Amino acid sequence: MNASLAATLGRLLILSVPLGTLMILSLLSLLPYGTLGAYSFTPNLGYAGMVYWTLRRPDLLPPLSVFLAGIALDVMGSGPVGLWALAFLSGYAFLLWQRVLFVGRAALPSLLGAGLAILIGFSAGWGAASWQAGLLVAPWPVAVHGLLTLVAFPLVGVPLSRIEARLPEPD
To answer: Measuring CA to CA, which residue among 31, 18, 133 is closest to residue 80?
Structure first.
């Protein structure tokens, strides 16, 4: 195997780590804990993971991976296909755009960035769901879901930081 092919395969393997963690976290989000009636009061761990990787190592999380994680969550959760993809990409775009404000600082700015990304992404998802339904969907379940995701963000960051520490530094 030539060095170029080996380097490409190595890079693909490294790029699969964040996407793999998003898929696992998304699966954990779908477990039936925190369900009350028709509402699911659980954090979106996959979204929290997307925020983490975008803030810490955006070089390992291309837009295609973010899109695939959102579509996978749509399909696994039997929701409207594209809803979480839109939410993930909206939050991802915001974080990339304003990343300089949240990276390399204390924990509070990162938490603020996560909160704003959750607000933007979940609002985009709520708007798309309302548009699809042809009426305004109740916003409070989305707000609770977003708040729980924000609370889960630091908890998701602990194992992801350990995984990140094992990955090579960017070039």
So the answer is: 133
Q: What is the pLDDT along the chain (171 residues), one digit of tens a residue?
A: 577 766 677 777 777 899 999 999 999 988 877 666 666 678 999 999 999 999 989 999 999 999 999 999 999 887 788 899 999 999 999 999 988 887 776 678 888 889 999 999 999 999 999 998 899 999 998 899 899 999 999 999 999 999 999 888 876
Specify the 3-state DSSP secondary structure of 59: helix
Whole-model pTM: value is 0.89
62 exposure class (CB count in 10 Å sphere: 0-12, 13-18, 19+): middle
Output helix, strand, coil percentages for the chain, rounded to the nearest 5.
75, 0, 20
Sequence-ordered alpha helix ranges (H) in 77-106? 83-102
Please name the amino acid found at residue 50. Answer: M
Q: How many CA atoms lie within 13 A of 46 on its CB side?
A: 30
The residue count for the chain: 171
Q: Dihedral of CA 16/40/162/91: which sign?
A: positive
Among 42, 28, 22, 45, which Cα is nearest to 163's?
Answer: 22
Which amino acid is it at 84? Answer: W
What one-character DSSP code corresponds to residue 78?
T
Q: Which domains does the chain have, with CATH numbers?
A: 11-165 (1.10.1760.20)
